Amino acid sequence: MALRGDRHALTGVYxxxxxxxxxxxxxxxxHLSRCQACASxxxxxxxxxxxxxxxxxxxxxxxxxxxxxxxxxxxxxLPAADDRARHARPGRTLLPRLAVAGAALAAAAAVIxxxxxxxxxxxxxxxxQQLSQAKQHLSQAQTELAAINAVRTAADAVLxxxxxxxxxxxxxxxxxxxxxxxxxxxxxxxxxxxxxxxLWLIGAHGNKIRSEGLLGLHNGRGGPALISGVLxxxxxxxxxxxxxxxxxxxxxxxxxxxA
Amino acid sequence: xxxxxxxxxxxxxxxxxxxxxxxARVARGDQAAFEAVYDNLAGPVYGLILRVVRDPAQSEExxxxxxxxxxxxxxxxxxxxxxxxxxxxxxxxxxxxxxxRAAAAATAREQRSAEVPVPHDDVADTVxxxxxxxxxxxxxxxxxxxxxxxxxxxxYGGYSYRQVSGLLSVALSTIKTRIRDGLIRMRDCLGVSx
Lengths: 259, 194
Fold this sequence. Notes:
The complex is a heterodimer of chains A (259) and B (194). Chain A has 259 residues and is of the alpha+beta class. Chain A has helices spanning 5-8, 11-15, 22-32, 36-54, 62-73, 83-88, 90-104, 107-152; strands spanning 158-163, 169-175, 180-186, 195-202, 209-214, 217-218, 221-228, 235-242, 255-258. In chain A, strands 1-2-3-7-6 form a five-stranded antiparallel sheet, covered by helices on one side. A four-stranded antiparallel sheet of chain A has the order 5-4-8-9, with no helix packed on it. In chain A, α7 (90-104) packs antiparallel against α8. The longest helix of chain A has 46 residues, at 107-152. Chain B is mostly helical and 194 residues long. Chain B has two domains: 1-113, Rna Polymerase Sigma Factor, Chain: A (Orthogonal Bundle); 116-194, Orthogonal Bundle (Arc Repressor Mutant, subunit A), CATH 1.10.10. Chain B contains ten helices and no strands. Chain B starts with 14 loop residues before the first helix and ends with a helix.
């Protein structure tokens, strides 16, 4: 075994995800890409860790299966990793290669290299910025998805489906304990230009009406839209409004369901 | 609830290839294959996450994220780089570790650190006391106390090696070596090919 030096000894720590920071892990991964012996040792350690995991298997709650399968049925899969995209990630592959090339080049080439590196750095900065924005959006979406799931799987969840007079149907799942409802629609008529479907929460006495935003439609399906702060007696309704929506409904809702 | 499409009989002792094949089908959008993957790996995924995260409700949530990620990214699984089980359980462990480190901020963490995990009990405690568990238990017993402690704190406890070094008041470089030496011994004891 030709493993020497300090860095090599990190194989075990890395395989157990026990490095302290993502940066430290990234640094070690760069090392792994150049150290065949380390990479194969990490593989063996990961398989060993898998055995440690199998040894503590527990029967998950049955609700997990239902929740996962429900999500699977409507979650789009990602394509196999795009090679171009992978090569475009400068941190892992491009920089080391540039460094190797740079060593081989004469001093005259160093200037060009510096320019390339600066551009790469800039690109890296932009990519990281985009990545962090994307992550933020993703985490917002995940939080909302988690909330939607929580309503759907709440012990007191009640599901009501109504066929609307204009066609299609609206489904409301409400959880009184969470004060939340989740709304989905299917088959509502396609919108004419300049029109939107707007969601409303109407207070028990009809005197307080709160906009809950516009209904997003994809392939004839609407939602899921999460509505929070629902009180006993509230009514959920949908109206057809001018583009952009309105502060208060301009027409009576074409469908109303106790929230 | 087992799939409309019949699953191939699971050949004895060839779980890895069986799961790899299933995952290739999952990558093509085969939900029945995913149900079979679930049936094989949801237990280890949930058990591992529960072991690290401790809180059952949070563990269920993280397990759901992990299994859904396996579905979403199945096309990126590369059997040349490791088995399907290792792929899924690596995702599970990373997510569990992310969760506890994110929550590390305060008191919950200090309480956790008070209870140093005892691997024997946990393994004995599993619902499915499998041959696997028995073998892992025996191999863990074959480590030195120091190696076992470092590995279980890092893997089952979700602690970084710097935290392990702090918890045990031992130098960082010593922890690094203990973990590696312990894993080599575990690997050889379990007969993991590499």
